[in-house]
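pasting for the record
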Amino acid sequence: MANLHLMDDKDLVHLYQKGDQLAISELVSRYKQRIYSTIYFLVRNRELAEDLFQDTFIKILTSLKNKHYSEQGKFLPWALRIAHNLVIDHFRKDKLMPLQHDSDEYSVFDVLPQKGRNAAEQMIYDEKITQVRALLDQLPFEQREVVILRHYAGLSFKEISNMLEININTALGRMHYAILKMREMVQKQDINLRE
């Protein structure tokens, strides 16, 4: 039997479509953190993020079983597009904007890898994360969305523009304005984000 964690996404998809349940388990394990984090950053509510995450994987499984996957090995951007569309559908249906904040019990930053830090360094790191979170919350949704997809989901600007169905220059512009706005907020608030 092939070593699944060494296989590329496209081969895992084909294996799953032939009935291998372990193949989809490998794909889920490979990308669940990035997909969940992206959803959470967009909705800022743990319970809603968990529901949308579950809906995302149900839709992914259904699409794969029905052979509606044709992304030529680009599983993550395809999966994130499904997640993003479900988030947008949710807000359209409820006519809400994602303005909720992290709860005390959970923050998406909790799942980001942390380098070995002593207690003092960890306190400084935690304070900087809180400051970055506050800055992200102040960005317009369209700009925050691009920042999240670029820095936390790891997508290229081409993948972001395809997912959001916008011109690549629009995606670049949103990132540019987000950075300018965050820089301006940092200067106004005299925040030090350097380590």
